[in-house]
């Protein structure tokens, strides 16, 4: 059986309810952040980033860009009030 913990909050709550020692908060935080079995089992939190390619070098006013997505609303209330785009 491998010893485990669920998160910093639950581990700290469990240990601090039974024991006390100086610097216990920072020691438990460091232990949870550096736990080897957790690091191996943890799911990646960042998705793969798309590769970046430089834009071709062009003369002034040769390349135009139009933002067709904006403005982007962020809350559900704003999305509910949003009118359909006119083309």
TrEMBL record:
Positions of the Integrase zinc-binding domain: 4-43
Regions that span the bilayer: none
Pfam family, one: Integrase_H2C2
Coiled-coil segments: none
InterPro entries: Gypsy_RT_Integrase-like, Integrase_H2C2
Signal peptide extent: none
The protein's name: Integrase zinc-binding domain-containing protein
Annotated organism of origin: Potamilus streckersoni
């Amino acid at each position: 059986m491998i010893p485990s913990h669920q998160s910093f909050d639950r581990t700290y709550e469990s240990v601090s309810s039974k024991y006390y020692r100086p610097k216990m908060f920072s020691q438990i935080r460091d232990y949870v952040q550096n736990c080897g079995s957790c690091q191996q089992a943890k799911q990646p939190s960042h998705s793969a980033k798309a590769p970046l390619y430089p834009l071709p070098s062009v003369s002034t006013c040769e390349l135009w860009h139009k933002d067709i997505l904006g403005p982007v609303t962020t809350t559900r209330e704003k999305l509910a009030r949003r009118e359909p785009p006119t083309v």
